[in-house]
Amino acid sequence: MTRPQRILIVEDNALVAKFYRMALERAGGFECLVTENVPEMLEEVEAQRINLVLLDISLSNAEWEGRPIDGVELGRLLKERAAQPLPILIATAHAMAGDRERLLAASGADDYVEKPIFDAQELVDKVRSMLARD
Amino acid sequence: METFIEEMKRYLGVTEEDAELMRKLGPRMEKYLPELAERFYAQIPLHPNAFRVFTGGEAQINHLKQTLQAWARGLFRGVYDEDYAAERYQIGFRHVRIGLEQKYVISAMSIVRSYLYDCLLFEFPASDQRMRAAHALGRVLDLDLNLMCESYMHATLENLRSINEHLERANRELDEASRSKDEFLALVSHELRTPLNSVMGFTKLILDGLTKNPEEEKELLREVFSSAQHLLGLVNDILDIGRIEAGRVALRLQNMNPRAAIESSVALVAVQAIEKNLKIRDETLEVDLPRIRADEVRLRQVLLNLLMNAVKFTRKGTVTLRAVPSHPPGFLRLEVEDTGVGVPQGKRERVFEKFVQANPSQARRQEGSGLGLAISRKLVELMGGSIGLTSGPGGVGTLVWFTLPMVEEPGASESSSQQQGVVSTPATS
Description:
The complex is a heterodimer of chains A (134) and B (429).
Chain A: E1 6-10, H1 14-28, E2 31-34, H2 38-46, E3 52-55, E4 63-64, E5 67-68, H3 71-81, E6 88-92, H4 99-107, E7 111-114, H5 120-133
Parallel strand pairs in A: 1-2, 1-3, 3-6, 6-7
Antiparallel strand pairs in A: 4-5
Chain B: H1 4-12, H2 16-29, H3 33-43, H4 57-75, H5 82-98, H6 102-123, H7 127-207, H8 214-245, E1 250-256, H9 259-275, E2 279-282, E3 292-294, H10 296-312, E4 318-325, E5 331-338, H11 372-382, E6 387-391, E7 398-405, E8 420-424
Parallel strand pairs in B: 2-4
Antiparallel strand pairs in B: 1-3, 1-8, 4-5, 5-7, 6-7
């Protein structure tokens, strides 16, 4: 049996992160890492232990080089540091007109889903289709 | 450069010869001037807009008759220079200001003109002399009327310019208001979606059979319930601040002792404090509380907001409530101090804005709507006080203070507490 694919979940709301983890683990059989610790993320990404990132835009706790960092900046940083192509899926509650294009362009992410995200199977399908692109 | 009056004289053909003729005419016309004034004011007050001008009764009319004679003497002085122009120029501005139209002054001047022509008939039986005088007088009267009409136009333009400026300013303010409404809507949408994600996500996990056992389902349902509660709090706060900003909050101001509001707020927050092992110290008990003018329900809301915040952002230590009468003079200052995480210097003003938290990492964002301080500030300001935030003693923790006006006479009788006033919030944009 092959090793399960690992998904990095970056989400500042503990309950939402909990839902992502349960949905991805149980409906998709993925392994999840939930963290807002940037050095830890980079280490995982650089060591090629992450197959996809599920990324929130408003991050309350993430810091990089002594200052707060949001999902847009973090998306670019993770892409830059990844040793292999790293798909990034933005999941955000910023859902006003124009947010989608703006956020995708600014973060370098590959796809975008709007909160509320509540269907485990849909989320899993989305992640799988992104993983299959590479 | 040619001045306006020089240009006018050139257009109308008013010559130095005309001026000379007018000067010679002056003494002979003097005897007609009282009658000129009589005729003028016999007819002019009948003008439909005359009520705007003739508000001073007989005394005003008599004074105006004198003014008209003085004007006619000026006309026959034969000096049509800058000073003359400047004086005539004021008339349009005066009339536009009181809303009197140009046609009024034109019809008035035609009375003057026909009467003065009649006078010339008596004074100059020889027709060639009469014709020369009439032509000179006609040109000078045209000049005079032109100056007034020009002043009307300038005054009207000036009026329009100021109306335009006013409209442009109003337009900018509307744009600003609509932009901040859009921003607020975007923030609200963001804040609502997060708890909604938990409500829908966990419910769907259970419905999809992705849970392991009834215990886990129960745990998730508890999260759903707390997220739904949070949503309800958000909706209430959003409606509250919407009402305040739209000016639809009626305060019931009354003279009151703040003791009851303080005690009930402290009692409510004590439950949470005990759960977190925090001490609540009510130092207002050591003070003889003055009577204040406030809305009791809203005062309780502000106190509760501040006390809840203090408990929420404090991990260990004490939350202290303090009262300082006459600080500043005429106001009771209430302080809520905690030994919690504190608010960085740069964020002390911003935390009173909507949906701004100083240290989002320190508390689960679930716990507050992010509107408590914004609502508190509006309410305190509506009650005539102010609100602010500093660090606690020694730079530790947070101290939020607010002031409310004390009732003026310290020995106010009991009946004064029955006086009630209703104040509507001013609409803010």
